[in-house]
Structure prediction request, 553 residues.
Amino acid sequence: MTKLALSIPAVYAAAAALCALAPGWPQKRKRIAVLCAAGLAAVLSLLLFRAAVSGGPADGGMLPLKLSFPWLDGALLRVGPLFYADGMTVAALSALCALNLAGALHALSRSSADGAPPPQASALAMGLVCAAAMSGTLHWALAFLCCADACAFPSPDRKPLRTAALLLPYLPAALGALALAASAGTFSIPMLDVQRDSAFLPRAALDLPAGLLAAGAAARLFAPPFSGLARELAKRDFSSSLTTLCAAPLAWFLLLARLEPALGPALDSRLLGWAGLAAASALALRAILASDAVDAAACAAGFVWACALALAGERCFLPGTLLAFSLAPAAALLLASADSVEKSFGSSSFDRLGRARFAMPITHIAVMLAALSFAGLPPLGGFFALKSALGGLYAMHRNIETALLAAAFAVAGAAAVRSFHMVFNGEAHTSPEKAAEAPVPELASLILLACCSVFGGWLLSRRAVLPQMLPLPPAPREPLLSGLAAAALASGAVLAEIFYQTRWRWERKTARRKPAEALAWLLELRPVALAFWLLGVLSLRLAGVLSGGKENA
Prediction:
């Protein structure tokens, strides 16, 4: 199983390197190479799934879970092996790896016209996210979520001060990842001899490449000291930046090894807790006062990690892990969609957008998911993580910290809803000459997601499902019903907003989108968005694995 888990990202890495080192290849040959890699990775994922569900406890420590679905007995007899504890995580993440990277690597044959970071970096990052999570290295999976955020960040081809303002909220992100890794007792640096915890798959072979890639992402994120490196990585193609991706991470990794002894004592004090709370409050306030969607998204993404940092400083490790794993995918979605919102709606009129129209349904799906998640609603998580975080602080009699964190979450949720509202009422829609009508696919996708959020909240609130993913508080019925009611109210508000904006506010056009066209655009949803949705749900399971490992220790 170890070789299979390591071979999946290796296949994608080989395909990315092959296409990058052969810039003279025709586009057709690159597409063939990418499709072959995706097919091979899919076969390896199936083999890994079979090994996960057919092996015993020695192969993966799998524990059978008893689920009561009377009306799904027939289906569960066929897919019953999926409901093994660790086997479910391994199988789902391996399939997620194949789906996500197949969609991301499909962009290898396309040239970047706006100077954005190469898609290969995103593909490799998400591949190692899945591999690290499958091997039990939750701290590296957390670091790779930062790496995915880095790859989704808009190109820093702007003024230096604005670039620094956009990237500085990621400073608490990096500190939060370090704090959570150290708090879990699994922080590992290859140059140092640090005690490791046990995992159900050996992970020594993943630590070095994972650390190098995560350090490379951190080097891109820190500005202004690394703004020159970020610009070079954004402007160059993947083949010419391979040297930078190999040299700069090594230098950053050596620096990190020097800083680790200094960070250790800080974890034993309340300094990190107060620093995280201060950063969360400041970022939440800046998100609600942001001038555009990109600023709001960057502040919201940094807010998530600042909250995780605050909880780690207060020794609330499980709530901090839940927050990071359930809200970080939504932060990446919000961050990636904010830039595409400006690109799509920043044009003069709808009929001049060209192929950008095809990205609009994906854009609004991403913004919708992120807004629901930051508001603390299922299915992306957030509600149970928020209750666990506030409950942990309240149990420790940290009244001031609890009040600050609750206020920061309220402000950040309002900022997410505001960014979702800005999609419909952005600068492109304020003047009559730039007004445009929402296409049918946009409306259909948002309605579909609003309904799915209610169904997801109901499914996760079932006593037969949620207790297997997350240990519930002593009185679980009240928060479960509250979460479901909040999801229903939010979905109704979103539907009312959509109906109001599309029926009465926007300028009507004669060219209407056909239902068949709408369905075709909906089916073009990139696997990356689906992967983030699944990763948000599975994050609860991953946090449970971390909690179980600590209890066993």
Q: What stands out?
A: Residues 48-268, 332-367, 373-384, 422-553 have pLDDT under 50 and may be disordered.
